[in-house]
């Protein structure tokens, strides 16, 4: 919860001055629409990250990553019920292929036994991960800018963390050294602001379920980065997984999907 708090805090510290001096009108939201940002901030960002980190703590990184990518399955269902998006054979097929690809890339087949608790928290992380797309879609339909959605999501995420942390201790650790501050800035800008802005922007012209399946390229990118920067040689399973995930993305770009 401290990590979520620091991530949200620095995201706001970076974004707010830019918006304030560039286009102040982006900070305006209607009181009746607050539920959208409570959804993206508290129900999604806080709870998704909490259950994801919990799964990592009680099991393995590979299991946490794979269970998080149950999100497209839930998203296809949510999109059909809430946004009347068709559940097509190609969507289901692409979803299954992407999930299998994530399983191969993550190395889950080489992992040990998993507890029921880890499976539950992992699936919950997938559900709350999917809910970010749901509430973001509603905010976009109400005419809000992607920047507005991003900053208010993290404002509400910040307040959502407060009951669960020692603020003084968290801030002391965060600002203890220049390296800690630099790490927080890096996480906020490169791992939060850019991806959330780009993903929310992508939702404008993409079906909700398709967007989340496409985001499954994340473990593929992680594998490539590991190879380039950390000399981690991809296994045969990783290569199979990369091919499967990229195949799913290609399938989603077929006409009439």
**Which band does the percent of strand residues land in?**
under 5%
**Overall domain count:** 1
What characterizes the major β-sheet? none
Question: What's the total helix number?
Answer: 12
Averaged pLDDT = 86
Q: Which segments are poorly predicted (pLDDT under 50) over 5 or more consecutive residues?
A: none
Overall, the morphology is: globular
Termini separation: 39 Å
Please state the CA-atom Rg, rounded to the nearest Å: 19 Å
Helix content: over 70%
Structural class of the helix and strand makeup? mainly alpha
Give the assembly state of these chains: single chain
Protein model, in words:
By secondary structure, the chain is an all-alpha fold. The protein has one domain (2-17, 31-252). The chain contains 12 helices and no strands. Helix 2 (34-58) runs antiparallel to helix 6 (116-141), helix 4 runs parallel beside helix 6 (116-141) and helix 5 (89-106) packs parallel to helix 10 (208-214). The longest helix has 26 residues, at 116-141.
Describe this structure in a few short sentences.
The chain is mostly helical and 257 residues long. The chain has helices at residues 2-22, 34-58, 61-68, 71-83, 89-106, 116-141, 146-161, 167-174, 178-202, 208-214, 218-230, 236-252. The protein is globular, with a radius of gyration of 19 Å.
């Amino acid at each position: 919860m401290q990590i979520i708090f620091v991530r949200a805090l620095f995201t706001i510290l970076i974004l707010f001055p830019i918006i304030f001096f560039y286009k102040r009108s982006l900070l305006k939201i209607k009181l009746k629409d607050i539920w959208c940002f409570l959804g993206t901030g508290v129900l999604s960002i806080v709870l998704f990250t909490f259950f994801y980190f919990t799964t990592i703590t009680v099991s393995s990184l590979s299991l946490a990553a794979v269970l998080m990518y149950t999100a497209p399955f839930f998203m296809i269902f949510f999109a059909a019920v809430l946004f009347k998006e068709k559940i097509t054979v190609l969507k289901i097929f692409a979803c299954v292929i992407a999930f299998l690809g994530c399983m191969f890339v993550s190395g889950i087949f080489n992992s040990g036994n998993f507890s029921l608790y880890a499976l539950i928290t992992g699936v919950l992380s997938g559900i709350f991960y999917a809910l970010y797309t749901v509430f973001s879609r509603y905010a976009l339909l109400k005419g809000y800018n992607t920047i507005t959605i991003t900053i208010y999501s993290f404002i509400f995420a910040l307040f959502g963390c407060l009951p669960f942390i020692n603020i003084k201790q968290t801030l002391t650790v965060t600002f203890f050294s220049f390296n800690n501050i630099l790490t927080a800035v890096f996480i906020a800008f490169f791992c939060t602001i850019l991806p959330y802005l780009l993903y929310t922007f992508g939702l404008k012209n993409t079906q909700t379920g398709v967007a989340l399946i496409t985001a499954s390229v994340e473990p593929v990118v992680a594998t490539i980065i590991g190879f380039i920067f950390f000399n981690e040689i991809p296994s045969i399973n990783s290569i199979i997984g990369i091919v499967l995930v990229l195949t799913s993305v290609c399938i989603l770009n077929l006409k009439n999907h």
